[in-house]
Amino acid sequence: AQTVTQSQPEMSVQEAETVTLSCTYDTSENNYYLFWYKQPPSRQMILVIRQEAYKQQNATENRFSVNFQKAAKSFSLKISDSQLGDTAMYFCAFDSNTGNQFYFGTGTSLTVIP
Amino acid sequence: DSGVTQTPKHLITATGQRVTLRCSPRSGDLSVYWYQQSLDQGLQFLIQYYNGEERAKGNILERFSAQQFPDLHSELNLSSLELGDSALYFCASSVGTSGSPFNEQFFGPGTRLTVL
User: Fold this and answer.
1) What is the pLDDT of residues B8-30, one digit of tens each?
2) Is the Cβ–Cβ distance between A8 and A108 less than 8 Å?
3) A residues 55..114 contacting B (CB < 8 A)
4) For residue B20, what pLDDT is reported?
5) A-B contacts at Cβ under 8 angstroms
6) A8 at the B interface (CB within 8 A)?
């Protein structure tokens, strides 16, 4: 079964600094999709970034980028120039290519300190 | 705004009662997913429908049921409610189903259910 692990329940970062959130997953599949979602205090779930496993190049969306290590089954999120609005819960998610479920990690609560 | 709508936003009811949560997916999306998020918890996948048919089941209790209608909106029915059912219930939609390219899920704002 697929599992997604986020080993950092809580993190904090100074405004304008860089922070990296960790995510590892377990799968026997070769092709799949990975996502990071953000859930601010409003509780709305917002897609931050996505990565396709067959693509070697790490995805980037403005200040957000990932470090995708397929062999290590690692998918970390880097937030550069952290802003107060980045304060949120961040969930890593795995989409199987053969299954029919999204698997979410337990989340990392990020606080950006002014 | 994700384009996914959920009604009602808030729901307060008593133990033993039955409620129905409604979700309208984004235009063009065929899949609807339901999730439960209890206070300070992660997302628990409940069930997925694709184009009217049940596609996957997660940790959904027997007291809960769902369906997707021909117009693709979905309803989640919760019956014999217990205090522990108090949670935020999210609906999400996607174009295809698991494994499809760019099959990211877009979430609605959620329905907050409080069981007293």
Assistant:
1) 999 999 999 999 999 999 999 99
2) yes
3) 91, 95-107
4) 98
5) 65
6) no
